[in-house]
Design a protein that fits this description.
The chain is of the alpha/beta class. The chain contains 13 helices and 15 strands. The strands form three sheets. Strands 3, 4, 5, 6, 7, 14 and 15 form a seven-stranded mixed β-sheet that branches. It has a six-stranded parallel β-sheet with strand order 10-9-8-11-12-13, with helices on both faces. Helix 5 crosses helix 6. The radius of gyration is 20 Å and the shape is globular.
Length: about 325
């Protein structure tokens, strides 16, 4: 099979690798849509690797007898490789599993972890069947495109009465805007990159404020009757962003971080009586129906936030575009020419 490889600083190519092997409960998935994410840092920094990508949607092409999914099923593969037996895994919170499986050792395979590839392997219980009316590209947004901020909305129970502030409008933050808009919320955002700011406005974000503006807090308060946002989402991973959102969110409001940014002052959080959540992925056992309903009702918005698609053979070009910041979510097609 074909696999994308980082070979040096801003250098990449496509190589041949053996097709992956499986052993129950693993299945083999032919990847048709692979969204691009943090792997761009490996490309920019020259971290040589042939195991790139962690998001995918595709078709099951090999499964052993008794599998929870069948050959021919269209599926989204969930992240990582939870043990499947601990309390976290059986409750649908496998992202926090402390006993992850090594798929190579378990399946006696030398490939299959990467999703910038034509095939991957995944446990059957981490493969979600895609409804017939949803494309591979849109379904693949159930991973990082919509997933972390979907969890944020679930934790904070965002609804049409809320004003939601999103910090950072990269691919994850744009997904946060889609999730909030799908729930009828009013959305404000912080973003300095002009392309992403304009893209956010085009999907319905009411106001985009430059986070480098010294009066950004005053602007947010003026837009919210002096109180601050009802609920906020940190998606920028900027060092100062979590602490700023504590200031920009109203007393008794809620903040969820899906980024990996800097510290907050507990005294300010406590003084305002706020709730602060961490969100990484979403509960696929509890919320799959709600996730696919969000995707189904947001197709026009996703058509804009998925700003570019590339055949995997043009991976270097795709990464160079990703580095400019002038894009939303980029999706690779491993089988396209």
């Amino acid at each position: 099979m074909k696999v994308a490889v980082v070979t040096g600083e801003r250098e990449a190519t496509i190589v041949d690798q053996p097709d992956p092997c499986i052993k129950a409960p693993f299945v083999k998935v032919k990847i048709y849509a692979a969204p691009m994410c943090t792997e761009v840092h490996a490309y920019a920094n020259g971290n040589v690797s042939d195991c790139l990508g962690h998001e995918a949607a595709g078709e099951v092409v090999a499964a052993e007898a008794g599998s929870k999914v069948a050959v021919g099923d269209r599926v989204v593969v969930m992240p990582q490789y939870g043990c499947g037996a601990c309390e976290l895994c059986v409750s649908g919170e496998h992202i926090h599993c402390q006993h992850s499986i090594d798929p190579y050792a378990y399946c006696d395979s030398s490939s299959g972890r990467a999703t910038y590839a034509q095939y991957c392997i995944k446990q059957d219980w981490l493969c979600l069947p895609i409804p017939a009316d949803i494309s591979y590209g849109h379904a693949s947004m159930a991973y990082c495109g919509l997933g972390p901020t979907f969890n944020a909305m679930q934790k904070m129970q965002v609804n049409a009465l809320d004003t939601v502030l999103i910090s950072g409008l990269g691919a994850v933050g744009l997904g946060g805007a889609v999730n909030a808009i799908a729930r009828g919320a009013r959305v404000l955002a912080l973003e300095s990159q002009p392309f992403r700011a304009e893209l956010a406005r085009s999907i319905g974000v009411e106001v985009v404020i430059n986070p480098n503006d010294p009066d950004k807090l005053q602007q947010i308060r003026e837009l919210t009757g002096g109180h601050g946002a009802d609920k906020s989402v940190e998606a920028s991973s900027a060092e100062s962003a979590p602490a700023f959102l504590v200031e920009a969110t109203r007393a008794r409001g809620q903040i969820t971080s899906v980024g990996w940014g800097g510290p907050i002052r507990a005294a300010v959080l406590v003084g305002k009586g706020q709730s602060f959540h961490g969100a990484w992925h979403w509960n696929h056992l509890v919320d799959a129906e709600a996730m696919f309903r969000t995707i189904r009702t947001s197709k026009s918005l996703l058509g804009k936030t998925i700003s570019h698609t590339f055949p995997m053979t043009r991976i270097k070009e795709a990464w160079e575009l990703q580095l400019t910041g002038e894009r939303g979510k980029i999706i690779l097609h491993p089988w396209a020419e």
